[in-house]
Design brief:
binds iron/sulfur cluster, alpha/beta, 14 helices, 28% helix, four-stranded antiparallel β-sheet, Rossmann fold, six-stranded mixed β-sheet, 21% strand
């Protein structure tokens, strides 16, 4: 457990000033065979088998891609256990008994700088594919697919904005690992043959700006610069980031690459660096564990597969153990709310927020329009919600109201004067809109 004296928390639970510490690796680690993007999987191991750290133990299958599954410790595969996934469903996780030796798989090896410089775009793409690199800001989109774009890329944007409150994992990463960030960006520049790379951060992050202004002096001709964007939410949404830093408005339905722009979250950049430098899949990541429900909020290095319950113990446990809790994986605006702490830290978990449950009474919609005014994509959330409430649901009207444009930023719920969880209705409307 961490010590109380190392932690000072401000009123919003922001931990940007608190260094990342290594959470001890637990005795048992859990890896989901399937996930939301990949509903099918085949395993290459059976119960009782010994696995090595970084070994490919199976393959996930999605509609248009496959993704290797890697062991995140050395030890024994002990079968399956059900835990909550961030989708809110109980799913099967593979259970590994850690032998605490971290015996590495033979596939892990270091490439020299010279070897890296000779890699072609196709070779880099293949490496990130085999290392199952995905968007680590929470999107989990396969990185290699982004690398396969045929568009000419003129600008690379690195998303270090981390716009949701409470989350500080990327903030700490940028402060603590500028060299890896820059080397990861250079790999991306090499792949896309693109010199213009901009690291986007919030203007208020003076500490990051200071570190990079100084650090980038060593990389004068690298083409890597810092771009400070406004401080409001949702600046981290890629469309807002592109508009703010480049003045380009990406039209609905178009990809940033069709404007010559490609963007990666800063944690993803580190994942790409580790894949190319060490041929290693993401097995550890920074996670902010915070909220008023726990004793000592912290920024941790967490081994992928660690139970959330175990991390909460490392934070001194619950402040008020008798009170009901709210558990959120990800940020408070876009994160997934789970009914219990019986869940696992996967590689796309950026933060865990634990709050004491407060009772809000939902009032009827008064058509104040606040949700519409706050919607960054110009939807009419209350109209979508009210259409969803009237039975039977008018499918054609839902399609006309276009909920598929919603980026699930959560602002309509946040701004609702009647405490209505409007975003939940929009999520359901998206399902209806996809029906044939
Ligand atoms: S969550 Fe609400 S505010 Fe955000 S994009 Fe969707 S409808 Fe608009
Ligand atoms: S903010 Fe809430 S009360 Fe106001 S129109 Fe939207 S749903 Fe209705």
């Amino acid at each position: 457990m961490i010590k109380k004296t190392t932690h000072i928390q401000d009123s919003l639970g922001l931990l940007g000033h608190i260094p990342t510490i290594h959470a001890p690796v637990p005795e048992y680690l859990f890896i989901a065979s399937e996930n939301a993007r990949c509903p099918k999987a085949e395993l290459f191991i059976k119960e009782g088998d010994y696995v090595k750290y970084g070994q490919v133990i199976g393959m996930r299958h999605a509609a248009f891609f496959d993704q290797p599954i890697h062991a995140t410790c050395s030890g024994t595969f002990e079968g399956f256990e059900k835990h909550y996934h961030r989708s809110g469903k109980m799913v099967n996780f593979m259970k590994f008994h850690n032998d605490f030796l971290d015996t590495k798989d033979e596939s892990i090896h270091e490439r020299s700088e010279e070897e890296i410089k000779k890699l072609t775009k196709e070779e880099i793409t293949e490496i990130v594919k085999n290392c199952a690199s995905v968007g680590l800001g929470g999107s989990s989109f396969p990185t290699y697919i982004k690398f396969q774009t045929k568009e000419k890329i003129n600008t690379i944007l690195i998303n270090g904005i981390e716009c949701e409150p409470y989350i500080n994992a990327d903030h700490r990463l940028m402060l603590e690992e500028p060299e890896k960030v820059v080397k990861g960006i250079q790999i991306i520049q090499q792949a896309f043959d693109c010199k213009d790379a901009r690291i986007c951060i919030k203007s208020k992050y003076k500490d990051i700006a200071e570190v990079y202004h100084e650090f980038l002096k060593r990389y004068k001709d690298s083409g890597i610069t810092l771009s400070c964007v406004k401080n409001y939410y949702p600046q981290g949404w890629e469309i807002a980031m592109i508009k703010e830093s480049l003045g380009i408005q990406v039209e609905s339905g178009k990809l940033p690459s069709s404007y010559g722009v490609i963007n990666f979250n800063v944690s993803t950049v580190l994942g790409i660096y580790d894949a190319v430098k060490y041929n290693m899949a993401v097995s550890e990541r920074r996670v902010t564990v915070t909220g008023d429900g726990i004793n000592y909020p912290s920024n941790f290095f967490v081994r992928v597969g660690t139970p959330v319950k175990y991390l909460i113990e490392q934070c001194g446990g619950y402040k008020n153990p008798d009170k009901d809790k709210v558990f959120i994986l990800g940020g408070p605006m876009m994160g997934a709310s789970l009914p219990s702490d019986d869940t696992i830290c996967t590689k796309t978990v950026t933060s865990i927020i634990v709050m004491d449950k407060k009772e809000y009474r939902e009032e009827p919609c008064i058509r104040c329009g606040s949700c519409s005014l706050s919607c960054p994509v110009g939807l009419q959330p209350y109209q979508i919600m009210n259409t969803m409430k009237s039975m039977p649901v008018d499918k054609e009207k839902i399609k006309f109201l276009n909920p598929l444009k919603c980026i699930e930023c959560g602002l309509c719920s946040y701004s609702c004067t009647s405490n209505i969880p409007v975003t939940d209705y929009i999520r359901k409307a998206k399902v209806v809109a996809r029906l044939k």
